[in-house]
Amino acid sequence: MSWLGPEEWQAVALSLKVAFWAVALSLPFGLLTAHALARWEFPGKQILNGIVHLPLILPPVVTGYLLLLTFGTQGPIGGALQTIGITFAFRWTGAALAAAVMAFPLMVRAMRLSIEAVDPKLEQAAATLGASRLWVFLTITLPMILPGILAGAILAFAKAMGEFGATITFVSNIPGQTQTLPSAVYAFLQVPGGEDSAMRLVIVSVIIAMSALLLSEMIAQRIAKRVAGT
Amino acid sequence: MTLSVSIAHSMENFTLNAGFTAPPGLTVLFGRSGSGKTTLINAVSGLLTPQSGRIAVGEHVLFDSSQGINLPPHRRRLGYIFQEGRLFPHLTVRQNLSYGRWFAPKSAPRESLDKVIEMLGVGSLLSRRPAQLSGGEKQRVAIGRALLAAPRMILADEPLAALDEPRKAEILPYFERLRDEVEIPILYVSHSATEVARLATTIVVLDDGHTTHQGSAAEVLGDPEISPAGVRSIGAFLTASVAVHHDDGLTELDAGGTPLFLPRIPQAPGDTVRIRIAAHDVILARRKPEGLSALNTLMGTINAVRPGSGPGAIVSLDTPAGRVLARITRRSAAALELAPGVPCYAVVKTVSIAPRNISGPAVSS
């Protein structure tokens, strides 16, 4: 993509990296949370549900500020992590954390719906055939919820690519460090003559979003076909 | 191996307090809907934990509330055939069949995949998925899947209830083969008198959460005191051997020395068959009837007369062929002065013995 300037290319690459890690690392937690909300009964279930959905309803700036308070170098968790060498503040890792938190509710919702659609009677049947809970999950539940996991992951990826408010509040807008694609578009629009760069990034943004969507549709259809057995 | 169950479980407006033993063979858990059959079989499978009691297969204790033993379903090794099949939709028939084999201990005695595929006639379906199967085919695969998990025992919860009559007729013989060819005890939940008569070696009657009777199929079905599924389904069943096939489309059976005629059946002379004679198809007479169109007359002695709550009564008659039940009106019972010890004739129309009431060795066509 030679028509992208080095700074623009940097922003695109950073965004892809941030979104990839945000989704990859939150996937297991998302699946666990979705499973807990769909299948388990425990005290405080509604509170967990509320916390998971909080980033969806709070202004992103507020979420970003709360992240800064907890995961900043002065924050309770951020400070502790810094002593073992993990820093979030003003690093791309912080951008990934912000993107993961913001995308989490979307991921969990999609997965939860697909888990709820699996008939527990099939899982019971697998148990009577000798499968332990882990094997039931791996051989019955997981294959059947694969479309939901995929949908959740793609949705989360798209959300992570586009995350702006929480990211810029938490880790600022440092080129090469935390300047993701939306932050770069914003930055280019602030300087005279930056419109061309902004437009190129907008085009890239649309292409990435559309391809992600098409890819997920394609895979989901293929999996759904296999699961439905037709 | 024998299954012994003794459990108590209370739910909102239902109390289960049941005890029975299921010896090798096919034990039918018989009772009307709501009598607790499914609760009981789920407790055996481990899908439901009863509040107290003990469940054991042979020496393997599956549940014992006094010792705090409660094996999870996957460690009980009971093959469960569900009413709705419950095949895994994302797996092929072959993968469904082999699913349980994977988890069975290597040392467990197991049926060979080829034998089961042949026995259930599913060889042509192996690469299909459940969505491409008919109801009857699904249930055959479900039987195979349970059997191939190398279970200590097979559980079946009304496995034919979701099928229409032709499909039921298609599946019944497979359960007969399972009973006769596989040495695994089977616990079979049903409220169908036909299924009971054809399949049961032992019957456990469940009524409102309590096991009220247990015994061999002949004992329980021949006892008018027990009407587990209502008077319409009362009937005795007789064991007889095929004597000769006549040219006019009839088969003559020898039932304890008495000839019985019924529409032609496929079994060969010498084969043993069980036939069910519904109580409402039997007419009683005090004198030997003459000039009747009915071909089957059994002489016997009345064993019991049980008046029902309505106008009917159930009379049980001991004949050389076995115990026969007749459902007649109380008015007739009084007019004929029927009482225990009175000799009597039972008349059965040949055509009332339907093919679905006959079971015998599988016939290869």
Characterization of the model:
The complex is a heterodimer of chains A (230) and B (365). Chain A has 230 residues and is mainly alpha-helical. Chain A contains 10 helices and no strands. Helices cover 79% and strands 0% of the residues of chain A. In chain A, helix 1 runs parallel beside helix 5. The longest helix of chain A has 34 residues, at 6-39. Chain B has 2 domains: 3-233, 3-Layer(aba) Sandwich (Rossmann fold), CATH 3.40.50; 236-359, OB fold (Dihydrolipoamide Acetyltransferase, E2P). In chain B, 20% of the residues lie in helices and 36% in strands. Chain B has 8 helices and 21 strands. Chain B starts with a strand and ends in a 6-residue tail after the last strand. The chains are: A mainly alpha (230), B alpha+beta (365). Chains A and B meet through helix 6, helix 7 and helix 10 of A and strand 7 of B.
Helix/strand order of chain B: EEEHEEEEHHHEHEHEEHEEEEEEEEHEE
Assign the CATH superfamily of the largest domain in chain B.
P-loop containing nucleotide triphosphate hydrolases
Largest interface: A-B, 23 and 32 residues
The proportion of strand residues of chain A reads under 5%
Instruction: Using the CA coordinates, give the radius of gyration of chain B.
Output: 22 Å
